[in-house]
Specification:
CATH architecture of the largest domain: 3-Layer(aba) Sandwich
Largest sheet: 7 strands, mixed
CATH class of the largest domain: Alpha Beta
Number of domains: 2
Distance between the termini: 57 Å
Radius of gyration: 20 Å
Number of helices: 10
Shape: elongated
CATH superfamily of the largest domain: Vaccinia Virus protein VP39
């Protein structure tokens, strides 16, 4: 069996029931599929059984990439590269369904990159992604909860998110020390337009930099204490960042852009 590399956050999914459940999450037949971090190709095999129209996998580990090419030959295309350096929009003409047992050490970085770089015409149809459970809980968190924060706000901006299931460590080799969660993402039809998504990243970073402090200091830092904005969004500056809902953060990002334009 291939030895997993800790430096690449490798944990290979081996539970056949879980592999089957993942491929039953959404329709694959005649769809264009992208898999991130296929590892030894366990999930890849299950996806191919569902007869996708076309499949590409991105694998950073050169030994695993070579093994995948030998194992699947002309059934798919293997890209041996770092997913963080790839522009996925250049890989396909059609919208894709993305599967990924993401490396846990860079999972949020991958997802944030996709969302921040998203244009209004989405390059994907669905994302079926596995995360460390603690990270998944932050992604799907609602406001007024302790897990709610920057990741929740950025991920829920343009995407609907559903939790499919939790997965025990025993489903992997080597066995991780934590539980995992499978999440399903699909584009929202309506969302608040922000010209530069980096502004959303910036305001959430400043607000949540001291998440247990009141809103007054970060608000003043961003908006110079502008009372008209406080009144417009009915913001109580005695509250904490987790007490402000999603849409208010998106609207504040728009206000921030207006002030700088």
């Amino acid at each position: 069996m291939i030895k997993a590399k800790k430096s690449l956050g490798q944990n290979f999914l081996i539970d056949k029931n879980i592999l089957e459940n993942i491929t039953n999450t959404t329709k694959i037949e005649n769809k264009v599929v992208l898999e991130i971090g296929p590892g030894t190709g366990n999930l890849t095999s299950y996806i191919l059984k569902k007869n996708p129209k076309k499949m590409i996998v991105i694998e950073k580990d050169i030994n695993l990439a070579t093994q995948l090419k030998n194992k699947f030959k002309n059934q798919l295309k293997v890209i041996n590269d770092d997913v963080l350096k790839i522009d996925e929009t250049n890989l396909f003409k059609d919208k894709v369904t993305v599967f990924g047992n993401l490396p846990y050490n860079i999972s949020t970085e991958i997802l944030s990159k996709w969302i921040i770089n998203l244009k209004d015409n989405f390059w994907f149809e669905y994302l079926v992604l596995m995360f460390q459970k603690e990270v998944a809980d932050r992604i799907i968190a609602e406001f007024n909860t302790s897990n709610y924060g920057r990741l929740s706000i950025i991920c829920n901006w343009k995407l609907n998110i559903k939790k499919i299931c939790d997965i025990k460590p025993e489903a992997f080799y080597p066995k991780p020390k934590i539980n995992s969660s499978l999440l399903f993402f699909y584009p929202k039809k309506n969302f608040i337009k922000i010209k530069n998504p980096n502004n959303l990243e910036k305001i959430t970073r400043i607000f949540f930099n001291q998440r247990r402090k009141m809103l007054k200091k970060p608000f003043n830092q961003l908006f110079n204490g502008d009372k008209s904005i406080i009144e417009k969004f009915k913001i109580d500056l005695r509250l904490r960042p987790q007490n402000i809902n999603f849409d208010t953060y998106y609207k504040l990002a728009c206000e921030y852009e207006n002030l700088r334009s």
